[in-house]
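quick one before i forget lol
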Amino acid sequence: MATEIEAWTTGPQNEGVFSLKQDLEDEDGPYGIEDLNELEVNGNWTPQEKALHEARLKAKAKRRLRKSSSRDSTRESLSETVPGEPSTDPNSPKGKNAVNDRKSRTGKGRGLPKKGGAGGKGVWGAAGMVYELEEPDSKDPNYDESAQGDTVYATVVPELDERELEKTINPIVQEYFEHGDTKEVEMLLRELNLGHHKYEFSSLAVSLSLEGKASHRELTSRLLSDLCGKVLSENDMSRAFDKMLKELPDLILDTPEAPQMLGQFIARAIADHALPMNFLDCYKGKVDCDHARAALDRASVLLSMKREILQLDNVWGVGGGQRPVRHLIKEMNLLLKEYLVSGELSEAEHCLRDLEVPHFHHELVYEAVIMVLESTGNTALQMMVKLLKAFWQTGLITLDQMNRGFQRVYDELPEISLDVPHAQSIMETFVDLCFQESVITKQLRDSCPTSRGRKRFVSEGDGGIVKS
């Protein structure tokens, strides 16, 4: 039946044939409902008239349901068929809802917009809605920097990787060995972003000091003590020394005494509260390396000493200019006496460098000249000229220190002559030899006091000959 109706509605309409569309739009067509009922009673319906009647009934039922659904949202959907009536074709254009229809797709509701007009794409919200104040996002494309008031710029420092860490830390530590200012090192470290490699600063500083002097190791211990709690934590210190204990087999290749020195570093750090007190207890029965065991034993022995030296302030000895002047004078006298006995220039040079007092080398020159004036014979004179020449050529004793040492002897020569009567003549000979060997300058030689000022003419008959 439906196929016949479709053929009718789409096919060409001939004269005398009723149009379904026309009758659906006009309920008062050529045949009313009463006329159709009368025809049905008489049994005079043609097939076209019967199909038209059924189509009109379905259209009236749909109009009736559409009107009632707007008043009652609990009605059934228009898509549902009326009981007793044949279902419509789902592919029919009139059986579908319009795509842009704002009414409910299910046939329920009053046909109002969703969420009261507050939802959907491009909608700001319902009328009268108050939003919270949102902070401006600097990543927003519409962000206006000038409209946000004062702008604070933060400097972002990238984290140092392992390759750049050593290149950055080594110059800082080497410079610290020259000036000894821990606050400057602290300031430089705060400007760097060490990240999770922060603990490696301690291990690098200790490694550099192992290859240096005793004064460098003393400065390193002070540095670790001052940085602990400010830039480095106890955990960082523990990780650093744990790493060095594992690297001891490699450190011994450059520094054979590395186990003993590392043990002293550990003991000093524990005494200065840079390492936790139970640091040694964590390694009991867990160390397989002989070098690491020797370092831990050294630290344990130092910490088990008397309470008076528990702080271990002198574990590295007092170095450089921190030593008393009397001690330095005594060391230089001992150095010169050993040289006069052994005659080894290299050993004397090594001892003088270990004193680490380049500003006090004029004392060595002074003591050397005094020993020459107080000695008998030419042996001491020749050896001291050779010693000063070696120190001058290597640059160990500078021009200023050499001049100051000789000038001190010049100033004290009258008093020295009271104990050594021939000091004046010995001094002139020694100065002439030093000038010939290019140890002193011509100006320093000419400033040497001579005995000619005290010489006199014996008589007028001597012919002006000066007589000593």
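fyi The longest strand covers residues 456-457.
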